[in-house]
């Protein structure tokens, strides 16, 4: 039997350390490459197995976030004879993308885990939109993965340096690369993000060029075309589908449909990181609870007046902040009550105020 080198799938000494107890219990590690209705494709040293959740793990799970997702490292009891395995646990995630699971109760559902780098694919055509990019940056920062902006379809843009400068203005400290999958330009610059078993994921609007880029990185049609070429005597016959794939030159790429359905929710820390320039300004306001709405000594207003902070960027920040607060209230009845009480009080005060009759 051929053995898979798990380092090529991202395994490293830190994962090995986290796996210690599972190893003592006689389990082996595997990485989830596809989830389908609680059946998981898992890459292991013994090749790919179909994993099912152990009964005990199912009983102890609090919610959907306790179940494995694409990119997770799991602890398995392999049954190689029938190509199956039982999953007993999930290693703590280094990063995660999640969405709200459908249903009456708010539940977090993990869409992808253990992503090192998230490529924010954004097209250099009429879809180019800094405000949308800020939204994706917030999502990316919230995940814990490192964001990298890929300005795709560079062949369609007459002023690439100008657009790169625009993005620099809203993404402080974020690497930015202009690429063209059609003309095979700029893709070499992505290699470092995929070196040494590192994992990247693609995030971006529909039509931004994610699948085209994935196929280019893979060197042939692999995603959304029905499967993957298996290195067996069936040649190009496609036998397997995965959402986490190993690229021929090394590195791992996650391109799951779940990433296309991500919405902004529960992303306060992501927002702070994506707008750290505004956070830093706000720290300089005279009042620690400054609303930046006209109080004296407001550093945000001062920066807006000086033009060092762009009004559009500030508006975008406020809008995302409101949106997140709205989502949080929707999820939390206590917060809803608090908000209702706050407004009741405000209305009462307005009625009592002397200027009114
Ligand atoms: N000119 C140009 N067109 C490109 C490039 N990359 C992708 N496209 C085109 O853009 C369109 C959308 O590309 P996709 O790769 O399907 O986009 P996607 O982000 O995967 O879209 P969804 O699957 O809807 O999320 C296709 O018609 C591609 O041929 C590029 O580098 N240059
Ligand atoms: Zn202020």
TrEMBL record:
Its main location: cytoplasm. The gene is rsgA. PROSITE patterns: ENGC_GTPASE, G_CP. Residues 330-342 have a biased composition (Basic and acidic residues). This is Small ribosomal subunit biogenesis GTPase RsgA. InterPro entries: G_CP_dom, NA-bd_OB-fold, P-loop_NTPase, Ribosome_biogen_GTPase_RsgA, RsgA_GTPase_dom. Residues 107-262 form the CP-type G domain. NCBIfam families: ribosome small subunit-dependent GTPase A. It comes from Paenibacillus mucilaginosus 3016.
């Amino acid at each position: 039997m051929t053995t898979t080198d798990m380092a090529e799938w991202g395994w490293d000494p830190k994962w090995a350390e986290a796996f210690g107890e599972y190893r003592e219990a006689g389990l082996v590690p595997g990485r989830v490459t596809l989830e389908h209705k609680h059946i998981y494709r898992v890459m292991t040293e013994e090749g790919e197995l179909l994993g099912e959740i152990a009964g005990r793990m199912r009983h102890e799970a609090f919610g959907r976030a306790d179940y494995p997702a694409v990119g997770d490292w799991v602890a398995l009891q392999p049954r190689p004879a029938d190509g199956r395995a039982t999953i007993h646990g999930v290693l703590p995630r280094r990063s995660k993308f999640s969405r709200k699971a459908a249903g009456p109760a708010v539940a977090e559902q993990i869409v992808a885990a253990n992503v090192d780098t998230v490529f924010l694919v954004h097209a250099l055509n009429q879809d180019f939109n800094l405000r949308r990019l800020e939204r994706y940056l917030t999502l990316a920062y919230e995940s814990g993965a490192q964001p990298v902006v890929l300005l795709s379809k560079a062949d369609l843009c007459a002023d690439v340096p100008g657009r790169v400068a625009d993005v620099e203005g809203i993404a402080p400290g974020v690497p930015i690369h202009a690429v063209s999958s059609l003309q095979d330009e700029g893709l070499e610059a992505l290699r470092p993000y995929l070196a040494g078993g590192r994992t990247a994921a693609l995030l971006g609007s529909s039509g931004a060029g994610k699948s085209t880029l994935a196929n280019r990185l893979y060197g042939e049609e692999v995603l959304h075309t029905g499967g993957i070429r298996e290195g067996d005597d069936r040649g190009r016959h496609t036998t397997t589908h995965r959402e986490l794939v190993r690229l021929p030159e090394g590195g791992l790429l996650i391109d799951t449909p779940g990433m296309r359905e991500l919405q902004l929710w529960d992303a306060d820390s992501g927002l702070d990181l994506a707008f750290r320039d505004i956070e830093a300004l706000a720290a300089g306001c005279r009042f620690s609870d400054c609303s930046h709405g006209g109080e004296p000594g407001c550093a945000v207003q001062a920066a807006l007046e000086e033009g060092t902070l762009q009004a559009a960027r500030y508006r975008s920040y406020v809008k995302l902040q409101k949106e997140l607060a709205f989502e949080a209230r929707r999820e939390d009845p206590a917060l809803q009550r608090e908000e209702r009480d706050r407004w009741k009080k405000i209305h009462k005060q307005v009625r009592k105020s002397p200027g009114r009759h």
